Amino acid sequence: MRVWSKELTFSTRRHREVLDITDEVLDAVRESGIKNGILLVQLPHATAALVLNENESGLIQDLLDKLEDFAPMRGGYYHDRIDDNAHAHLKSAFIGSSRVLPVINGRVVRGTWQNFLVIEQDGPRTRRLVILVMGE
Ligand code: ZN
Questions:
Q1: H or E segment and range at residue 96
Q2: Domain tally for the chain?
Q3: Numbers of helices and strands, H then E, in the chain
Q4: Which of 4, 41, 45, 118 is the most exposed place for a label (fewest CB within 10 A)?
């Protein structure tokens, strides 16, 4: 069994936005040469999240709107006494920042509408992404 990994960096441009990183993830899996195993995608950040869902502009706006309903900015949070981004921490904590998927016969197994979407909630900033593939 082999273990292969790669780290990417990218910049977000807005305070709150959704970025589709599907091409980067699939390219990395191809580059790994591993045909059967497990893919782990990890966003090593506490104020952004990673989901698998459809990259459709209406849905992206729905997602951002619902997250605001869940944890609005300046919601009177304790963490905002020392920082100004409690809302972003809460969204990241509840959604999560990593995903694990099977790789079978050279393909990442995912649904037609499951793109890898980074949900930025504390931008703009530079973000890192770690992609690890284990298998043969
Ligand atoms: Zn903070």
A1: none
A2: 1
A3: 3, 8
A4: 4
| pLDDT 10s digits, 9-51 | 999 999 999 999 999 999 999 999 999 999 999 999 999 999 9
Whole-number Å distance, alpha carbon 106 to ligand 1 midpoint, is 39
| pLDDT confidence band for 80 (50 / 70 / 90) | very high
CA of 46 to the centre of ligand 1 (A): 8
Q: Two tokens at 110?
A: 């995912």
Quote the pTM value: 0.96
Separation of 116 CA from ligand 1 center, angstroms? 24
Which pLDDT score, from 0 to 100, does residue 83 have?
96
Q: Which domain holds residue 90?
A: 2-135
Amino acid type, 21: I
Look up residue 12 and give its two tokens.
């977000």
- CATH number of 41's domain: 2.60.120.460
